[in-house]
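Memo to structure team: turn this sequence into structure tokens by end of day. - J.P.
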Amino acid sequence: MAVDSSQSLAKAADAHSVRGRGPRTGKTPGRLRRSLSTHWYAWAMVAPVVAVIGVIIGYPLVRGLYLSTTDANEANVERTIGVNHIPATYKSVGLDNYTAVFSDAVFWDRLTWTIIWTVSCVAISFALGLALANMLNRKLAGRSLYRMALILPWAVPAFVSVFTWRLLFNEKNGLLNKILAGGGIDAIPWLNDPTWAKLSVITVNVWLGVPFMLVAMLGGLQSIPGELYEAAEMDGANAWQRFRHITLPGLRTVASTVILISGIWTFNMFPVIFLLTRGGPGDATEILVTYAYRLSFVVSPRDFAGSAAWGVIILLLLSLFAVVYRRALRKQGEVW
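Reply from structure team:
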């Protein structure tokens, strides 16, 4: 009797499966359609942001890519002079602009200094931010006041900070040279000598970047369990060993992220270079992004196509850096 019941159930299951394999009247919805129907509220919230980003970033990007393949300049673009409308006469030149950029020694000189500038600023900012974060992570009197004072440069607009530093670096009336003169030291041409100008722009950018590193590193330090330090101290580990084997591994995820972000910001840090030295003296402190600006807004006739090509190359370099950096982190076991 039990056998008959099991056979009946098996037949019923087979019949159900046969009916399930029968012809279907409708198609299975696609992945995108299922996502829209399930998460429609999230898509509705994101849509305005995506639209704004598409207009603000997407259109200029596509336009820049297009102009970089033309010979557009101030003399042949569409323009209106009084009541006269002059149509555009520029034409496509393919990849000639990119060939000209890569074959020009100016590009390699600017790229070399941009890399030196970026690596120096990020490395010094990270080291100072980590050191200050370790100091402020301890219990000491007035810790909140110190934190506010160190974060203050981040709260001040960048152009205000740069103009203030420009006054300090003034060769004749600047505070720094007056202090040196009081000690019997000759005035230093902070912004008029190529070497001193490079050191000056690095100093200003580090001063602006340390608060970001400080906040990020301090948050990472506070997320490391204190029990690890207590156990290591009981095992006889000194301060350096605790820093090397507990602090640095605990900060690896935070450090990798802030280094990437800071590297991209510094690579494109236009305000510090332009407002402090305008790329001078001569072109000693000019980085890639300031040179692209010069081509489009300073030289005559303004070279829109060449500037667009430089902009695309900058984007490709940063994208390549981000991809390589991410792969290096994955090889080290970081999930990012």
